[in-house]
Amino acid sequence: MNIDFSKYQRIFAFGCSFTQYGWPTWADLIALQNPLKKYYNYGIAGLGNLGIAAKIVECDKRYNFCDTDLVMVMWSTFCREDRYVKNGWLTFGNVFNSDYGKDWLEKFADPIGYLIRDHAIINLTNNFLQSGKFGSLILKSTPFLYTEKPILEKPELETLTTLYSKEYNNLPIDLYNFMGQDWTKCKQVFWDDSVDKPFMRHDFHPYTGLYADYLSQIGLELDDNVKEFAKKTDKLLMSCKTKSEITNNFSYLSEMQAKDRTGLF
User: How far apart are CA 51 and CA 20, in angstroms?
Assistant: First the structure.
């Protein structure tokens, strides 16, 4: 993969917590390597592919993407419910790991239904991103039929594979397979003191150094300064014992990401 970053003046990033989180992600590393570009990171923790697509299209309407813009996305996991309610997105992540309740899940949630919905959304949005009107980097966090919930063999899966897998599999390796199909590879344990009843949080989001390795794997080599930054970031993160420490140590991210949320849904 070869991207000429010198031709771009603005960088936009979209995704879930793999794109924007409490410590630097793959998108932040790309921005750090290109410090003269204006950088907008619109990733939201827990957001699904419907919400990501809505963000991309809305930002195009507001910012008028052009040939000096690079639009980057890492598609999220499937089986998420995105709802915009009372001035904000409700982002609970995977419905089968949430508090929706057994009755609601049995009535409304079907892994195959989410695959059908999300692959249609991803395909339509990828066609837009690859229109040639601006630069694009399209990544995926999970493989084609990943749902975090076992699916018995059904005819729909074969049909989905026939319809979508060729285009989907032409994208770079997904983050899950890059991590050896093990989200716990980067387990981080810290005291979450941001809530009324603090508790020990077990967090499995990739370390910054792993994101650096991932970018290298897909052909986006980082310079030595950014690689060294990633190593130092990992050491700093692993030294943090509370969420407050993580927040304080990485508070600069909000400034670096230069988010202008005025009027943005």
Answer: 14
